[in-house]
Specification:
Distance between the termini: 25 Å
Largest sheet: 4 strands, antiparallel
Strand order of the largest sheet: 2-3-6-5
Number of strands: 7
Number of domains: 1
Strand content: 35-45%
Amino acid sequence: MATASNMIPRPSAGVVGVVDEMTFYLRLVTTTSGTLDTTNTWTPGGVTVVKTATKTGRYTVTLPTSFERLLSVVPTIVGSTDAAIGANTKGLDFFIRNDNVTRTANLAGSTQAGTVDLQFVQTSYADAELPDAAAVMVTIVVARGKTF
């Protein structure tokens, strides 16, 4: 009979572990028409963010390298203290496009470049620019290893 001292450790039921998980924290600040304010935008070393050319409300995030898995991308728009955040034609909702981070299952079908696109949309889900002078905190979680 197995005892607690010789059991193989494993995650609890319903829990999935990830090997070599890494989190990146970014803050994007816009000026007008979705242009990034490079003075007040900050990213960790090796991470770059650019407004995607010819695309409305889209930003390409480039990580220092590709990873085995893209686990999560969570942008949070920061509103002003009291003023309305903007019209419903502004980019107040979001999703990701072009998962070129993931090594094993590139959904975009293109090369693995360590990039992911963050797309902002209006209430009708049409692509839309962020409100002028908006700030967005972005958390990106990736993993180098496989899940168990």
